[in-house]
Structures are given as structure tokens and as C-alpha cells.
Amino acid sequence: MEPFFSYHIYSSTSQLPENWDELAANTIFLTKAYLTILEKAAPINMDCHFIGIFENETLIGIAVSQFVDLNQLESFGERDQCIKSSVRNFLFKNFCSHILLIGNNTLTGQNAFAFSENANKIEVVKTLQKAVIALKAIFKAKGKNVHMCGLKDFCTDELSQFEIPEFSPYLQFSTQPNMVFSVRNNWKTEEDYVAALSKKYRDQYKRARKKATGLVKKQLSLGEIIAQEDTIYDLYHHVAKSAPFNTFFLPKNHFAVFKEQLKEKFLFYGYFENEKLIGFNTLIKNGTDLDTYFLGYDDSVQREKMLYLNMLYDMIGYAIKEQFETVIFARTALEIKSSVGATPLKMYGLMSHDNKLINSQLDFFFRYLEPETVWKERHPFQD
């Protein structure tokens, strides 16, 4: 019998097939526990759906989709305060404000989908595109026309699966790289890492650690996260609104829901000065990867105490101690992440605009609105 491929779109994790998590074995970010966080505490301008792909009656693929409404944002970010910024904001609001994404806009990396090992990848990807068309119809029925569709984030060797006619209207693009830190096999302690640094970067480490004298770092429980929720949100929001470009802001309860769902796999570290919370960072245990998540800080303390750099060192120290293989530092702050030993991994996405004329010029618009980031890669190790 000829195999029949189909899809099913779910609006709630309670509807997901029982064996869903079997396909999410390689990433926590497609498990029911994580997807429940998106359901309970996604950004207010984000609407999530979950896609099951079937061969006959067998679940062979899972995916997450996010509809992002940029019109609900207070700010697109505080970069380029000039005419270019005004032009960009006008174009986004009027022509690109409704985005349908296969993937996860709150993370960096291929967290879009997972297929069973023996699945026919071409047929699965074709079926996924049919689900995208169905999702567009779902939002159109709600009075929300999708302007752009996209898929993210893929490494070079993953792009070949999209070289089929169904994806010919999509533009392949690349933005800031994913900064990835590799833990060496012979490192057993943070001191081993420091010893591997060249003198210049060993001095940077010592200077940063000295500056942080007096700060107290503490892992917060669920109850403590809830008790500090207002301060946590203020610290997060201060950093988020200063980002070059925003497509969402997290809700206030996000970190509490995260801790509630992922328990010991989600780590929340608070930094205190005189018992006052002045900064935090978050980590997610994802197999052999340690994913860094959102952070926040008081800007005056961050500069004085070199807090951000100290957070990076703390994350590396934890990864070495717990013997993770890699730390996923994600995008932004490329140079400082490079200075602690992270290396850039080029990531690609695909996007298509609903307007055929705009779509034909998408490459031009993209390069105009999102110019290439110029930064200097550092090489902190002695070898």
C-alpha cells in the first residue's frame, strides 16, 4: 500500500498524541513539558500551535509553530534612532507585522521540528508546508492575514531538505550566528578553563572576578522566583527593551511557569548586593547541551561589577563542573561571548512574503532592514 502522509494541528498540549515525546528525545524544546510553557506563558503577542505529521496512522514528525503579531509590541527595539529606524518600523507595522513561524522565536537553534529516524524527510517537509497553508487559513478566519512565513534556525547541512518546489518561493537568509562554547574533555574544573586562556584573557577573567567581590550568587526555588517576580521582570525588561530588535516581550509569570514545568532542568540564578536582587541569569539542561536563556540586570551595577561577563564565566564554570559538552550562548553580544571562548555557528532561515511583488524583492528589503553585524572574533585560548 502506498504510504499516505497527513498532518494534524493542535492548539493545546492536552491534545497531543501520547507518544509525542518519543520524537522529542533529542531536544527538550519539543517535549510536552516545554510546550506547556509556551501554552501557559508565551509572550502576549504570540499564538502557538503544535503540528503532528503522520504516515498512515503513525506519528513520524512533530513541529511547533508561532504566530507573532508585531502590532502588539510597545517597541521594536532602540537601535538606529534615525530615519532608517522610522522606515523600518513603518514597513514592519504595515507589511510584516503578522509572521507565521515554524520554529521558536524565543530560542536559537533548530527547535522547529523533529522527525523519526526512518521517515521520508522530503515527504515530511512537504506535509509541513501543507500545515503552514492550513495555519494561514486558520488565522485568516480570525481576521489576521499572515504577511510572512518563515522557518528557523538551520545549519548549512540541514538546508538541502528544503530544495524542493514547495519551498521555491522562500528566501534563504542568515543573520547573527549562534555562539557556541565547547567544553574540552580535559577540563574538570573552572581553574582548568582559566589555565587554558592566554595571558590577556586570563587577566580579563581575574579582573572581572575581582570586580564582582561582594556579590552573592544564589539559585532560586520556584517560591523565591514568584516572590521576586516584579523585580525579576524589571531587570529582564530593562535588558530586553535595549536589544537591537524585538519581536516579543515575555510575560511576568514566564520564569515561574518555566521552573514549575521543567523543575531541576531549569536553573534560575539570582545575583544579590546587600540582599537586593540586582541581576539574574537562566540555564536549561538539554541533553549534553546547556542552553543559556534570558537574563536581566541593573545597568549601573552591571558596569561597575562587570556582571554580564561574570555571568558568562559562571555559566562556563557550571557546564564544566556538570560535564556538559556545549554551552549554547545564542545570539547578541557576539564579541564578549567570543572573548570567553564561544565560537560562531552560522545559522540560516527561510522566509516568504504573501505579496508576490514584495516577495520578489525580499532579498533587497532584508539586507536594507537587517544589515550584517560587524564584529571582531576573539581567540582567547593559548593554542
Number of domains: 2
Structural class: alpha+beta
CATH H-level superfamily title of the largest domain: Gcn5-related N-acetyltransferase (GNAT)
Count of extended strands: 15
Poorly predicted runs of 5 or more residues: none
Order of helices and strands: EHHEEHEEHEEEHHEHHHEEEHHEHEEHH
- Reported by name, the CATH topology of the largest domain is Aminopeptidase
Can you tell me the overall shape?
Answer: globular
Kindly report the average pLDDT value.
93
Number of distinct helices: 14
* Gap from first CA to last CA: 58 Å
Q: Indicate the CATH architecture of the largest domain.
A: 3-Layer(aba) Sandwich
Radius of gyration (Å): 21 Å
Strand portion, in percent? 25-35%
Write up what this structure looks like:
There is one protein chain. The termini are far apart. The chain folds into two domains: 5-175 and 347-369, 3-Layer(aba) Sandwich (Aminopeptidase), CATH 3.40.630.30; 179-345, Gcn5-related N-acetyltransferase (GNAT) (Aminopeptidase, 3-Layer(aba) Sandwich), CATH 3.40.630. It contains 14 helices and 15 strands. The protein is 36% helix and 26% strand. Strands 1, 2, 3, 4, 5, 6, 7 and 15 form an eight-stranded mixed β-sheet that branches. The chain is globular. The mean pLDDT is 93.
